[in-house]
Design goal:
Phosphoribosyl-aminoimidazole Synthetase, Chain A, domain 2; 4-stranded mixed β-sheet; 2 domains; alpha+beta; 7-stranded mixed β-sheet; homodimer; 60s Ribosomal Protein L30, Chain: A
Chain lengths: 346, 346
C-alpha cells in the first residue's frame, strides 16, 4: 500500500463499494446465468460435474503487505484457487470473493486488489459472480470460492494412482519458496534488523515472480487432453512435493519411489539456495507454493508423457509396503516426510 | 468459550484438525458426488440451476464470543447462508466451511463450532463438502459458501416485482435486534459498565433465540410451492425490512406502499422496545438479522397467500414515481430509508 491520501471506504458503504468494484464486470461463461446483485449467483451445468474449492487468506499468516503489492495479492489469491480446479482436470468458470477490510485500507487499495483478481480471472476466462464485503477489526481477510466443471468421466482425484504408474511434475520446484526467502531478507534489511546484506534482486526476478505471481497450469491440462492422457491421480503442489506425494500415496493406498536427480529445479533456485546455504532438494521437496501439477499416468503412456513440454518424470508408484521413498543422488534411500515449511525454518 | 484446559490445535495440525472434525460426515444429497479430501468437492446438477452464496464473519464485527456460545455461532453462520438459498426459492444442498483460528482456541472449541454447523446442516439436509482450516493472528474468521438448486423456471430474483403485486413477509420482525440489545445489556452488567440493572432474561427467551438461533424459512418455501404460488420477487431480511424493500423496488424499477400497522411484531419485541424506550416499528424496519422472507406475489394470488400460515400481507408494489413509502398508524406517509442498524444506535 502506498501512503498517498486514501478515500475512506465509509464514503461508499458496503453496497456502494461492491457496486464500485464490480459494476463493469461482464459474464463470459455460458454457465454463469446471473452474477452479483441478488441473494445468490445462478449457474447452470447440465452435462458436467461441478467442482468447488475454497480458501481463506489472513493477513500476517498468508501474506505480508510490507512486500506484497495488493494487486499481486489479488492475482495470487485467485490463482491458487483456479489451480485447485485444474488439479481435478477441470476448467474454472466462476469465483466468489469475500473481503473483510480494516480501517487502514481505502477505496484505492480495494481497487488495486480487485484489479489483480480481475487480471487473473481474465487470463483464465473466469467470471466473478458473487461477493461479500465487510469490515474487520484488524487486517485484511480474503475468502475465495472457485467453481469449475469437467466432463463426468474426466475428473481426476488423488486416489487413483496404481502400482507402476509414472509420477510426473510440471515446471520446476522450490522457486516460490526461494522468492519468499529473498523478500523476507529484503524486509529485514528495510527494517534495519539485518546489516551488511544489501537488497539485491538482480538476476533473481524469476524467484520473485514465482512467489508473487504464480500461474495456475491451465496449459498442462490442455496439453494432457491434446495428448490423450488422462492422469490416474493429480493434485497441485501448494504445501511441497513431499507432502503432496504422500497425500496421493495415502489416498491411493500405494507407495512411491522418487529420484532426487529428476526433481526439476531452476538455475536461479539452485544459486539462491547456495547463497542461503540451504539444500536445494530440501527446498524443492518442502518449499511449497509452487502451484505446479503433480500427477501419475499409466506406464503405457510413457511415450506420450515424455513428449510433453515442461513435464518431468520423477519416479513411479510402488506397492504400499515399500513406503514413500526418495532415492538420493548418491543412490541412498530416504523416507519422504510431510514436513512442509517447518523443516526449512527449524 | 469455557475456561477448562484446552487441547492446542497444534497437537492435531491443520490436516489432522479437518480430519477430526469431518471424518464422521456422511453425504446425504444425490448431487454431492465427492466431499472433503481432494483439491475440490465434486457435485452434479444435471437438470437444475445451481445457486451459490457466500459470506465471511469476523470476530468482533459479526459476533461477540463473550455472549455467543460457539455452538450457536456455528449454527447461525450456516443458517444465514441457507437463508440466502431459500430466498431464491431454492433448496440448499452443500456448504464449504473455511475457518481461521487464533491460538486462544482449542480443539474443543472447534468441536463446539462444528457441532453447531452440523446441527444446522442436519436440520436442512445439507452436506459439508469442503473446507479450509488455517491460523489467524487475532480472533476467529468464518467463511461459508452455500450451494443449492432450483428447477430452471423456479428461481425467484429480486427484480421481478410488478405494480399491484402484494408484499408479504413471513414470521415477525425486530425480535433478533431486540435479542442483541438484551445481550449487550447483559454484557455491560457483567463487565461492570452498567449498574443498577440486573440481567434478566425471564420472559424474553424468544428474543434471545431469534438472535442466537435463527431459523432459515424452508417451511415457507415449501408452503408456497404447495399452494402453487411462485413469488415475483423475493429476498431474505438480513439488513432490515426497509433496506430490503428498497432493494426489491430499485431492482424491479417500482415503488411500494407498506403499512406500519401490518408489520408483524411479536409481543416480547414490543415489551422490550418499551423497556428500552425505542420505537418498535423502527426496530422492525431497521433491526435486521430476522432472516424472514420478504416476497411479492401477483394480486391474483391474494386468496392463496391469505391462507398461508405465518405469512402477513404488509402492502403493495406501486409505480416507481410514487417512491417507497411507509403509511404510519396515524395515516401519515414517510419515505423509507435504508438506514440499517445505524439508525438505531445514533
Amino acid at each position: 500500500m502506498d501512503t498517498e491520501k486514501k478515500t475512506p471506504i465509509s464514503t461508499l458503504g458496503e453496497f456502494g463499494l461492491i457496486r464500485h468494484l464490480t459494476e463493469s464486470i461482464k459474464l463470459e461463461n455460458a454457465s454463469s446465468k446471473y452474477g452479483i446483485g441478488d441473494d445468490c449467483a445462478v449457474l447452470e451445468y447440465p452435462d458436467k460435474q461441478v467442482l468447488v474449492t475454497t480458501d481463506l487468506l489472513m493477513e500476517g499468516v498468508h501474506f505480508d503487505l510490507t512486500y506484497v503489492p495488493l494487486k499481486h495479492l489479488g492475482y495470487k489469491a485467485v490463482m491458487v484457487n483456479l489451480s485447485d480446479i485444474y488439479a481435478m482436470n477441470g476448467t474454472p468458470r466462476q469465483i466468489t470473493v469475500s473481503l473483510a477490510i480494516s480501517k487502514r485500507f481505502g477505496v484505492e487499495d480495494m481497487e488495486e486488489l480487485y484489479a489483480g483478481m480481475r487480471l487473473a480471472c481474465e487470463a483464465h476466462h473466469v467470471d466473478i459472480v458473487g461477493g461479500d464485503t465487510t469490515s474487520s477489526l484488524t487486517g485484511l481477510a480474503i475468502s475465495i470460492t472457485a467453481i469449475g466443471d469437467a466432463a463426468k468421466d474426466q475428473v481426476v482425484y488423488r486416489n487413483g494412482a496404481h502400482e507402476t504408474d509414472l509420477i510426473c511434475v510440471s515446471g520446476n520446484l522450490g522457486a516460490a519458496y526461494m522468492g519468499l526467502q529473498l523478500l523476507e531478507r529484503e524486509k529485514n534489511v528495510f527494517m534495519g534488523e539485518s546489516d551488511g546484506v544489501q537488497p539485491d534482486f538482480a538476476g533473481k526476478e524469476y524467484l520473485l515472480e514465482r512467489q508473487l505471481k504464480p500461474e495456475a497450469r491451465r496449459d498442462i491440462i490442455s496439453a494432457l487432453a491434446d495428448a490423450g492422457i488422462r492422469p490416474t491421480a493429480m493434485m497441485d503442489i501448494s504445501d511441497g512435493l513431499s507432502s503432496e506425494l504422500m497425500h496421493i500415496c495415502k489416498q491411493s493406498g500405494t507407495g512411491c519411489r522418487v529420484y532426487e536427480e529428476h526433481i526439476p529445479l531452476d538455475y536461479q533456485t539452485a544459486v539462491m539456495a547456495e547463497e542461503f546455504n540451504m539444500n536445494v532438494s530440501t527446498c524443492a521437496l518442502n518449499g511449497g507454493e509452487d502451484y505446479e501439477l503433480l500427477f501419475t499416468v499409466p506406464l503405457t503412456d510413457y511415450d506420450k508423457v515424455s513428449k510433453l513440454k515442461d513435464v518431468r518424470l520423477i519416479g513411479h508408484i510402488t506397492k504400499p509396503e515399500l513406503g514413500c521413498m526418495l532415492i538420493t543422488r548418491d543412490g541412498g534411500e530416504m523416507e519422504l516426510k510431510a514436513q512442509g515449511w517447518q523443516a526449512l525454518t527449524e
